[in-house]
Amino acid sequence: MAVYTDITELELGALLKEYDVGDLLSYKGIAEGSENSNYMLHTSKAAFILTLYERRVERSDLPFFLGLMEHLAQNGVNCPLPVHRRDGVVVSEIAERPAALITFLEGMWLRKPAPRHCREVGKAMAGMHLAGQGFELTRPNALTVGDWRPLWEKAKPRADEVEPGLMSEVEADLAALTEGWPQDLPTGIIHADLFPDNVFFLGDEVSGIIDFYFACNDLLAYDIATCLNAWCFEADGSYNLTKGTALLEGYQSVRPLEQAEIAALPLLARGSALRFMLTRLYDWLTIPDGALVNKRDPMEYVRRLRFHRQISSPSEYGIGIK
Amino acid sequence: MAVYTDITELELGALLKEYDVGDLLSYKGIAEGSENSNYMLHTSKAAFILTLYERRVERSDLPFFLGLMEHLAQNGVNCPLPVHRRDGVVVSEIAERPAALITFLEGMWLRKPAPRHCREVGKAMAGMHLAGQGFELTRPNALTVGDWRPLWEKAKPRADEVEPGLMSEVEADLAALTEGWPQDLPTGIIHADLFPDNVFFLGDEVSGIIDFYFACNDLLAYDIATCLNAWCFEADGSYNLTKGTALLEGYQSVRPLEQAEIAALPLLARGSALRFMLTRLYDWLTIPDGALVNKRDPMEYVRRLRFHRQISSPSEYGIGIK
């Protein structure tokens, strides 16, 4: 749930004069995105989303994020298209925050994705990876293996409050991942947060990918590892092999994986689980109860971590290695 | 801010099969209404609002509220029209809550209404009062003079926490209002919560009135008194006579007031200020800090109360008495 910043119809009307989008008919704060304030707009021409970037997004990253969306949309990916103002600019300002107007995508995110949806998200992700080639800007991943240690140091002293023994358990993971993290896999633009709420479906087809505010240059297979965590586990913490197989087959039908990528999947999946566990843990320990932010249980990702730790072969995810 | 109850695309898809509204394209939880969960829907035919009624709305009141919206819409009031299901019913159920699908109204509520908007809301309110005649169902006002005492008794012991002396101050108001409350004024259907966030404008015209979930049968002039409180005070607590005059002139251009109604305005405005002060005070004292509900400052309405208490003539609101 979001919408942190209210805007007046006068501010918004003045802002929209900078764009060729018709007359404002309505705007509603929507409960989507956990980092920014989002408004759904109807104008006399179409529907749009206005995003106000709150403190967690660096203003200097906006040209990358918005440029990427434009690049991907022009290369066949269904994602929101940033609208250029009459003066060509895409980053505006409203209520003392940077803001962007983007096209509205129809579609619903799936609260309970089925294997056939995992196949489609695999395909869409691979398509996005291919379309990302040729995008001229770059952005390092701010939450990859080297960044976990500083985050962990902030949460570590209180980790055992969440579960006794968690501190030493995570220390061991961090050591193993830092030691073994793969270096020579194919890289490119990854979404880095491709959870179900960031993928819209119409029927059984992917109608759009949204929320590129963690996108960066990193190992392509790391995006797959994140999707295995986000799409292929059940509510009880069990791994659904049918979903994993479908997601990986879907991906490979568009971009076949190299053997080294397949071999690295257990470590990448473990690393991705650690990354999301760490940010959840940090939020869990630092955000006051009752704040207008969803605090997600870090233990969900501790259980993912434990699962990946005992994987002996990528075939357990549903993909063969030669 | 609202959206308390999440719904899945499967639940929603199943629900919409009961209606002739086309195929679901998207749905977003919106940050509107403080009592219910609201979703904005796009279907292949149009835009709609789906409201899930949370605990503060009595299920047995829904036929009144929804029937009233239909009656008003059929009699020329711009308000949402409840959509009938194929079986004729308007109250559905989703996520274990009663729910209704209503048409979407374009328009924006005004964060800073000007006098010309006050005039328009006066006209629209009078039009609604006239259109409400002939509606066959009735609902007593659950928050009128006789209901204030029990509400006050719950808040009274801690009232001085909000401001020292508030307890005896409000006791005196309650006694005076109970004693002098008018009995013989014209009655009819009133909105009873016609605050700026419940009135949409397109340009300078009222495009819609929403949120009829406090509507009831009561003194028509009491609705005007509530609007004086809600529309005609500035952020610093001062009464804007220009706005009040405009609102009252707008109203009278559609439905001229009787002399007795004009004479009663100071008492009605004081009563309405007490009513909103009491519910705010109760929420202020009972809702935990940080809950996903806007807690409004009761002192804003204590200041209104003090203003109305010292009024000696309705002309101070901007309306002459003969």
Automatic annotation (TrEMBL), chains A, B:
<protein>
    <recommendedName>
        <fullName>Homoserine kinase</fullName>
        <ecNumber>2.7.1.39</ecNumber>
    </recommendedName>
</protein>
<dbReference type="InterPro" id="IPR005280">
    <property type="entry name" value="Homoserine_kinase_II"/>
</dbReference>
<keyword id="KW-0547">Nucleotide-binding</keyword>
<dbReference type="InterPro" id="IPR050249">
    <property type="entry name" value="Pseudomonas-type_ThrB"/>
</dbReference>
<keyword id="KW-0808">Transferase</keyword>
<keyword id="KW-0418">Kinase</keyword>
<comment type="similarity">
    <text>Belongs to the pseudomonas-type ThrB family.</text>
</comment>
<dbReference type="GO" id="GO:0004413">
    <property type="term" value="F:homoserine kinase activity"/>
</dbReference>
<dbReference type="InterPro" id="IPR002575">
    <property type="entry name" value="Aminoglycoside_PTrfase"/>
</dbReference>
<keyword id="KW-0028">Amino-acid biosynthesis</keyword>
<dbReference type="InterPro" id="IPR011009">
    <property type="entry name" value="Kinase-like_dom_sf"/>
</dbReference>
<feature type="domain" description="Aminoglycoside phosphotransferase">
    <location>
        <begin position="27"/>
        <end position="257"/>
    </location>
</feature>
<keyword id="KW-0067">ATP-binding</keyword>
<dbReference type="Pfam" id="PF01636">
    <property type="entry name" value="APH"/>
</dbReference>
<keyword id="KW-0791">Threonine biosynthesis</keyword>
<comment type="pathway">
    <text>Amino-acid biosynthesis; L-threonine biosynthesis; L-threonine from L-aspartate: step 4/5.</text>
</comment>
